[in-house]
Amino acid sequence: MGLGWGQAGAAEAVPPNPALAAVLADDPPFQAQRLRLVDVPAPAGPAVSLFNGHDLRDWDAWLGYPDPARTYLARPGQTPVGTDPAAIAKIVHVVREEGEPAIFITGQIWGGIVNRGDHANYHLRLEYKWGRARYAPRLALPPNNGLLYHSHGAPGAVYGTWMAAAEFEIMQGSVGMVVPVGPDVTATTDVGRDPTLIDPQRRYMKGGRAVVVTPPAWNVEAASDAEKPAGQWNVLDLYVLGDQAVHVVNGVPVMVVRDLRMREGGAWVPLTHGRIQLQSEGAETYFRRITLEPITRLPRVIQD
Q1: Nearest partner of 127 among 250, 19, 304, judged by Cα
Q2: CA–CA distance, 39 with 299 (Å, rounded to integer)
Q3: How far is CA 57 from the centre of its chain?
Q4: Which residues contact 11 (CB under 8 A, 6 or more apart)?
Q5: 178 three-state secondary structure
Protein backbone atom coordinates (compact mmCIF):
# COMPACT_ATOMS: atom_id res chain seq x y z
CA MET A 1 0.00 0.00 0.00
CA GLY A 2 1.98 2.98 -1.26
CA LEU A 3 0.20 6.09 -0.03
CA GLY A 4 3.25 8.25 -0.70
CA TRP A 5 4.61 6.08 -3.52
CA GLY A 6 8.06 5.79 -2.03
CA GLN A 7 10.70 7.31 -4.25
CA ALA A 8 11.60 10.89 -5.05
CA GLY A 9 9.98 12.49 -8.05
CA ALA A 10 6.51 10.93 -7.75
CA ALA A 11 4.93 13.83 -5.89
CA GLU A 12 7.11 16.87 -6.58
CA ALA A 13 4.16 19.29 -6.68
CA VAL A 14 3.06 18.56 -3.09
CA PRO A 15 3.26 21.81 -1.07
CA PRO A 16 5.27 21.98 2.19
CA ASN A 17 3.51 20.56 5.25
CA PRO A 18 4.36 22.58 8.40
CA ALA A 19 3.00 19.89 10.72
CA LEU A 20 5.17 17.25 9.06
CA ALA A 21 8.22 19.51 9.14
CA ALA A 22 7.84 19.85 12.90
CA VAL A 23 7.63 16.07 13.31
CA LEU A 24 10.78 15.51 11.23
CA ALA A 25 12.84 18.36 12.73
CA ASP A 26 14.95 16.18 15.02
CA ASP A 27 15.63 13.34 12.59
CA PRO A 28 19.38 12.84 12.04
CA PRO A 29 20.77 12.75 8.50
CA PHE A 30 20.53 9.30 6.96
CA GLN A 31 23.82 7.47 6.50
CA ALA A 32 23.88 4.37 4.32
CA GLN A 33 24.73 1.20 6.22
CA ARG A 34 25.73 -2.32 5.26
CA LEU A 35 23.36 -4.48 7.31
CA ARG A 36 23.65 -8.21 7.83
CA LEU A 37 21.41 -10.85 9.41
CA VAL A 38 23.06 -13.07 12.03
CA ASP A 39 21.99 -15.63 14.65
CA VAL A 40 19.11 -16.76 12.45
CA PRO A 41 16.81 -18.86 14.66
CA ALA A 42 16.30 -22.54 14.05
CA PRO A 43 12.64 -23.46 13.57
CA ALA A 44 10.87 -24.46 16.78
CA GLY A 45 8.59 -26.85 14.91
CA PRO A 46 7.72 -28.12 11.45
CA ALA A 47 7.15 -25.72 8.59
CA VAL A 48 3.69 -25.48 7.07
CA SER A 49 2.75 -24.32 3.59
CA LEU A 50 0.13 -21.59 3.38
CA PHE A 51 -0.43 -22.31 -0.32
CA ASN A 52 -1.46 -25.84 -1.28
CA GLY A 53 -0.52 -25.39 -4.95
CA HIS A 54 -4.02 -26.20 -6.21
CA ASP A 55 -6.53 -23.62 -5.03
CA LEU A 56 -7.22 -20.87 -2.50
CA ARG A 57 -9.33 -22.85 -0.06
CA ASP A 58 -7.13 -21.67 2.84
CA TRP A 59 -7.62 -18.01 1.94
CA ASP A 60 -10.51 -15.56 2.07
CA ALA A 61 -10.75 -12.72 -0.44
CA TRP A 62 -12.08 -9.17 -0.32
CA LEU A 63 -12.10 -6.53 -3.06
CA GLY A 64 -12.49 -2.80 -2.61
CA TYR A 65 -14.09 -0.22 -4.89
CA PRO A 66 -14.68 -0.91 -8.61
CA ASP A 67 -12.73 2.28 -9.31
CA PRO A 68 -9.55 2.06 -7.19
CA ALA A 69 -8.97 5.79 -7.64
CA ARG A 70 -11.74 6.31 -5.10
CA THR A 71 -10.02 4.26 -2.39
CA TYR A 72 -8.62 7.11 -0.29
CA LEU A 73 -11.52 9.55 -0.72
CA ALA A 74 -13.50 10.54 2.36
CA ARG A 75 -16.66 9.84 0.34
CA PRO A 76 -15.85 7.19 -2.28
CA GLY A 77 -19.36 7.21 -3.74
CA GLN A 78 -19.15 3.47 -4.45
CA THR A 79 -19.74 0.23 -2.61
CA PRO A 80 -16.85 -2.25 -2.26
CA VAL A 81 -17.03 -5.33 -4.46
CA GLY A 82 -16.51 -7.39 -1.29
CA THR A 83 -16.67 -11.18 -1.57
CA ASP A 84 -18.33 -11.53 -5.00
CA PRO A 85 -16.94 -14.86 -6.29
CA ALA A 86 -17.07 -13.97 -10.00
CA ALA A 87 -15.19 -10.71 -9.48
CA ILE A 88 -12.62 -12.36 -7.23
CA ALA A 89 -11.96 -15.12 -9.77
CA LYS A 90 -10.96 -12.47 -12.33
CA ILE A 91 -8.55 -10.76 -9.93
CA VAL A 92 -6.86 -13.67 -8.17
CA HIS A 93 -6.39 -17.30 -9.20
CA VAL A 94 -3.90 -20.15 -9.23
CA VAL A 95 -1.71 -20.58 -12.31
CA ARG A 96 1.44 -22.40 -13.34
CA GLU A 97 4.37 -20.06 -13.81
CA GLU A 98 7.75 -21.38 -14.90
CA GLY A 99 6.47 -24.90 -14.36
CA GLU A 100 5.37 -24.33 -10.76
CA PRO A 101 2.05 -23.40 -9.12
CA ALA A 102 1.69 -19.76 -8.09
CA ILE A 103 -0.96 -17.35 -6.90
CA PHE A 104 -1.53 -14.76 -9.62
CA ILE A 105 -3.01 -11.41 -8.58
CA THR A 106 -3.88 -9.02 -11.42
CA GLY A 107 -4.15 -5.86 -9.29
CA GLN A 108 -6.94 -4.43 -11.46
CA ILE A 109 -9.25 -4.01 -8.45
CA TRP A 110 -7.61 -3.30 -5.12
CA GLY A 111 -8.08 -5.63 -2.18
CA GLY A 112 -6.45 -8.94 -1.46
CA ILE A 113 -6.53 -12.44 -0.05
CA VAL A 114 -6.30 -13.26 3.65
CA ASN A 115 -5.00 -16.53 5.07
CA ARG A 116 -7.45 -18.11 7.50
CA GLY A 117 -4.88 -18.81 10.20
CA ASP A 118 -4.16 -16.55 13.16
CA HIS A 119 -0.37 -16.49 13.38
CA ALA A 120 2.20 -15.42 15.99
CA ASN A 121 5.93 -15.99 16.56
CA TYR A 122 6.94 -17.19 13.12
CA HIS A 123 9.29 -17.00 10.19
CA LEU A 124 7.32 -16.48 7.00
CA ARG A 125 9.04 -16.97 3.65
CA LEU A 126 7.58 -16.37 0.21
CA GLU A 127 8.71 -15.64 -3.32
CA TYR A 128 7.18 -13.03 -5.61
CA LYS A 129 7.81 -11.51 -9.00
CA TRP A 130 6.09 -8.84 -11.04
CA GLY A 131 3.91 -9.60 -14.06
CA ARG A 132 3.62 -7.29 -17.06
CA ALA A 133 0.37 -5.34 -16.71
CA ARG A 134 -0.27 -2.21 -14.63
CA TYR A 135 -3.62 -0.59 -13.97
CA ALA A 136 -4.97 2.87 -13.20
CA PRO A 137 -4.60 4.84 -11.04
CA ARG A 138 -1.00 3.57 -10.76
CA LEU A 139 -0.10 3.32 -14.44
CA ALA A 140 2.76 5.82 -14.13
CA LEU A 141 3.81 4.77 -10.61
CA PRO A 142 6.03 1.93 -9.37
CA PRO A 143 4.34 -1.50 -9.33
CA ASN A 144 2.85 -2.02 -5.92
CA ASN A 145 1.61 -4.81 -3.69
CA GLY A 146 2.14 -5.78 -0.07
CA LEU A 147 2.58 -8.49 2.53
CA LEU A 148 0.33 -7.49 5.43
CA TYR A 149 0.82 -9.23 8.77
CA HIS A 150 -0.88 -9.18 12.18
CA SER A 151 -4.08 -8.41 10.26
CA HIS A 152 -7.19 -8.08 12.37
CA GLY A 153 -10.71 -6.68 12.40
CA ALA A 154 -13.26 -6.71 9.60
CA PRO A 155 -12.38 -7.19 5.92
CA GLY A 156 -12.43 -3.84 4.16
CA ALA A 157 -12.39 -1.86 7.41
CA VAL A 158 -9.44 0.21 6.10
CA TYR A 159 -10.44 2.36 3.09
CA GLY A 160 -13.12 -0.19 2.22
CA THR A 161 -10.34 -2.40 0.92
CA TRP A 162 -8.07 -4.05 3.53
CA MET A 163 -8.02 -5.36 7.07
CA ALA A 164 -6.03 -3.33 9.61
CA ALA A 165 -2.44 -4.61 9.72
CA ALA A 166 1.27 -3.90 9.69
CA GLU A 167 2.74 -3.93 6.19
CA PHE A 168 5.92 -5.33 4.71
CA GLU A 169 5.71 -3.19 1.58
CA ILE A 170 6.21 -4.78 -1.83
CA MET A 171 6.71 -1.83 -4.16
CA GLN A 172 9.45 -1.44 -6.72
CA GLY A 173 12.23 0.56 -5.08
CA SER A 174 10.65 0.31 -1.62
CA VAL A 175 10.41 -3.41 -0.81
CA GLY A 176 10.53 -3.85 2.96
CA MET A 177 9.21 -0.40 3.86
CA VAL A 178 6.95 -0.44 6.94
CA VAL A 179 3.45 1.01 6.67
CA PRO A 180 0.75 0.87 9.36
CA VAL A 181 -2.41 -0.07 7.45
CA GLY A 182 -5.14 2.06 8.97
CA PRO A 183 -5.22 4.64 11.77
CA ASP A 184 -5.48 2.03 14.52
CA VAL A 185 -2.02 0.47 14.01
CA THR A 186 1.40 1.91 14.87
CA ALA A 187 5.00 0.69 14.98
CA THR A 188 8.29 2.01 16.31
CA THR A 189 11.57 1.95 14.40
CA ASP A 190 14.82 3.90 14.04
CA VAL A 191 15.31 6.41 11.24
CA GLY A 192 17.46 8.92 9.48
CA ARG A 193 16.21 11.66 7.18
CA ASP A 194 16.91 10.98 3.51
CA PRO A 195 16.23 14.02 1.27
CA THR A 196 16.27 11.84 -1.86
CA LEU A 197 12.86 10.50 -0.78
CA ILE A 198 9.50 12.19 -1.01
CA ASP A 199 7.88 13.04 2.31
CA PRO A 200 8.21 11.89 4.99
CA GLN A 201 11.86 11.38 3.95
CA ARG A 202 12.43 8.75 6.63
CA ARG A 203 14.54 5.68 6.00
CA TYR A 204 15.38 2.86 8.40
CA MET A 205 18.80 3.44 9.99
CA LYS A 206 20.14 1.19 12.73
CA GLY A 207 20.99 3.42 15.72
CA GLY A 208 18.96 6.31 14.31
CA ARG A 209 16.21 8.29 15.98
CA ALA A 210 13.45 6.14 17.50
CA VAL A 211 10.09 7.20 16.07
CA VAL A 212 6.51 5.99 16.13
CA VAL A 213 5.29 5.45 12.59
CA THR A 214 2.01 7.33 12.45
CA PRO A 215 0.52 10.18 10.37
CA PRO A 216 1.59 12.67 9.22
CA ALA A 217 4.83 10.63 8.87
CA TRP A 218 2.94 7.54 7.75
CA ASN A 219 5.81 5.28 6.63
CA VAL A 220 9.51 4.52 6.96
CA GLU A 221 11.41 3.50 3.82
CA ALA A 222 13.54 0.34 3.71
CA ALA A 223 17.22 0.77 4.58
CA SER A 224 18.23 -0.21 1.04
CA ASP A 225 16.79 -1.46 -2.24
CA ALA A 226 17.57 -5.19 -2.33
CA GLU A 227 14.99 -6.13 -4.95
CA LYS A 228 16.00 -7.99 -8.12
CA PRO A 229 15.20 -6.65 -11.60
CA ALA A 230 11.57 -6.92 -12.72
CA GLY A 231 10.70 -10.39 -13.98
CA GLN A 232 12.95 -12.21 -11.54
CA TRP A 233 11.78 -14.00 -8.42
CA ASN A 234 12.48 -12.32 -5.08
CA VAL A 235 12.61 -14.02 -1.67
CA LEU A 236 11.02 -12.26 1.30
CA ASP A 237 11.62 -13.37 4.88
CA LEU A 238 9.47 -11.96 7.67
CA TYR A 239 10.51 -12.78 11.23
CA VAL A 240 7.89 -11.96 13.86
CA LEU A 241 8.13 -12.43 17.62
CA GLY A 242 5.48 -10.82 19.80
CA ASP A 243 5.25 -7.15 18.85
CA GLN A 244 8.59 -7.11 16.99
CA ALA A 245 9.46 -7.90 13.37
CA VAL A 246 12.39 -8.03 10.97
CA HIS A 247 11.90 -7.52 7.20
CA VAL A 248 14.43 -9.25 4.92
CA VAL A 249 14.64 -8.96 1.10
CA ASN A 250 16.74 -11.47 -0.82
CA GLY A 251 18.77 -12.15 2.31
CA VAL A 252 19.34 -8.46 3.13
CA PRO A 253 17.73 -7.08 6.34
CA VAL A 254 16.06 -3.77 5.47
CA MET A 255 13.73 -3.01 8.40
CA VAL A 256 13.43 -3.73 12.13
CA VAL A 257 10.25 -2.73 13.97
CA ARG A 258 9.17 -3.01 17.57
CA ASP A 259 6.28 -1.99 19.79
CA LEU A 260 3.67 -2.87 17.19
CA ARG A 261 0.43 -1.53 18.64
CA MET A 262 -3.28 -1.53 17.83
CA ARG A 263 -6.05 0.58 19.27
CA GLU A 264 -8.69 -1.31 21.22
CA GLY A 265 -11.42 0.97 22.43
CA GLY A 266 -9.61 3.92 23.97
CA ALA A 267 -6.33 2.10 24.66
CA TRP A 268 -3.26 1.10 22.64
CA VAL A 269 -2.31 -2.54 23.24
CA PRO A 270 0.49 -4.76 21.86
CA LEU A 271 -0.18 -6.22 18.42
CA THR A 272 1.32 -9.70 18.60
CA HIS A 273 -0.65 -11.94 16.23
CA GLY A 274 -3.10 -11.94 13.36
CA ARG A 275 -3.81 -13.02 9.82
CA ILE A 276 -1.62 -12.65 6.71
CA GLN A 277 -2.83 -10.70 3.66
CA LEU A 278 -1.45 -10.48 0.15
CA GLN A 279 -2.58 -7.32 -1.58
CA SER A 280 -3.97 -6.53 -5.00
CA GLU A 281 -2.98 -2.95 -5.80
CA GLY A 282 -2.56 -2.12 -9.45
CA ALA A 283 0.19 -4.47 -10.65
CA GLU A 284 0.25 -8.09 -11.78
CA THR A 285 2.09 -10.12 -9.14
CA TYR A 286 2.94 -13.81 -8.75
CA PHE A 287 3.41 -15.42 -5.33
CA ARG A 288 4.73 -18.91 -4.63
CA ARG A 289 6.46 -21.10 -1.99
CA ILE A 290 4.65 -19.49 0.95
CA THR A 291 5.81 -21.25 4.11
CA LEU A 292 5.62 -20.52 7.81
CA GLU A 293 7.58 -22.06 10.66
CA PRO A 294 7.46 -21.27 14.40
CA ILE A 295 10.37 -19.48 16.11
CA THR A 296 11.18 -18.59 19.71
CA ARG A 297 13.58 -15.71 19.05
CA LEU A 298 14.42 -13.17 16.36
CA PRO A 299 17.59 -12.99 14.28
CA ARG A 300 19.90 -10.06 14.97
CA VAL A 301 20.66 -7.30 12.51
CA ILE A 302 24.24 -6.00 12.68
CA GLN A 303 26.15 -3.33 10.81
CA ASP A 304 29.39 -4.32 9.11
Answers
A1: 250
A2: 5
A3: 23
A4: 4, 5, 198, 199
A5: strand
Total-model pTM: 0.94
Strand ranges, E, within the chain: 35-38, 48-49, 59-63, 92-97, 100-105, 111-115, 122-134, 144-152, 164-171, 178-181, 185-193, 202-204, 209-213, 234-241, 244-249, 252-264, 267-270, 275-280, 283-294, 300-303
Rg from Cα positions in the chain: 18
pLDDT (mean) for 191-216: 96
How many secondary structure helices (H) and strands (E) does the chain include? 2, 20
Contact, 83 vs 59, CB < 8 A?
A: no
Q: Could you tell me which of 296, 294, 289 has the C-alpha nearest to residue 50?
A: 289
List the Cα angle 228/229/234 in 5-degree steps: 35
Q: Which helix (H) or strand (E) holds 91?
A: helix 85-91
pLDDT tens-digit map of 64-107: 999 999 999 999 999 999 999 999 999 999 999 999 999 999 99
Could you say which DSSP state residue 227 is in?
P
